[in-house]
Amino acid sequence: MSRIFNLGSVNIDHVYQVPHLVRPGETLSSTGYSRGAGGKGFNQSVALARAGASVSHIGCIGADGEWLREFLTAEGVDCQNLLTVSGATGHAIIQVVPQGENAIVLHGGANADTTGNLVSSALESSCAGDWFLCQNETSHVEESLRLARAAGLKTAYNAAPADTAISGEALRHVDLLIVNETEAAALGKGDSPQGSVARVREAHPQMQVILTLGAEGAIWSGSNWEVSAAPPACTVVDTTAAGDTFAGYCLAALMEGLPPAAALDRACRAAAISVTRPGAAQSIPRSFELA
Description:
By secondary structure, the protein is of the alpha/beta class. It has a single domain (3-9, 38-88, 109-283), classed as UDP-N-acetylmuramoyl-L-alanine:D-glutamate ligase (3-Layer(aba) Sandwich). Helices cover 30% and strands 26% of the residues. Helix 2 (66-74) links the parallel strand 4 (54-61) and strand 5 (78-84). Helix 1 packs across helix 7, helix 5 (181-188) packs across helix 6 (193-203) and helix 7 (242-256) runs antiparallel to helix 8 (260-274).
């Protein structure tokens, strides 16, 4: 069975329920608080595992994050390449309003301690057909993509958060790019999300691109082809891990051999379930819930 090696952030999420997102200069009392497991990489490993994929997580945590290792292990994720380092585990301060939208402040913490050597060592056990996935919440993303491509893996890059996107040069090592509207604009600088994607694909014709559009679904484009899918209607509670749920389920479906249209449909349905629940990793559905 093919595996996916996920170089990804691991965070402790501090989630505050608020009547509205905090405005500049404002002090606002929260109406609720919870601590949970999160980080884009962590969430995507959970989503991949719950979708049925074989996952090896690559990353770093502090001693305060050992419970996150236990969480991943319980989900069936291989954590032998999740190192414990000095310093604090990454964390996020998340505001969630009653309508489900959120605003997030990140502290990288141990996520900044990932290295190319860690990735290179992890990939020594890779085989033909394996995938490598990364986001923008760890260090050495560009080097890691080059290492993965050199090792013969297919590569997927979720360019999030947008303000730390990798260079165009590094995109030469990406087989599948996953972006939302903001991230597409940061990379392609077009006059619309679709225009931005077109500019990115023009510069990197080897790369397929998935553009996510929230409630409107997603578009997957390749060389001279394009497919789309939309999620079912749902009541939004919290959108925190919707994109990560989508990415994990989409890649798992692709590794399973599903064509792009079917993979998009499955990913959209999984993301639609996730937004009906509070929290990050805990909101991600298991595969039987999509039946």
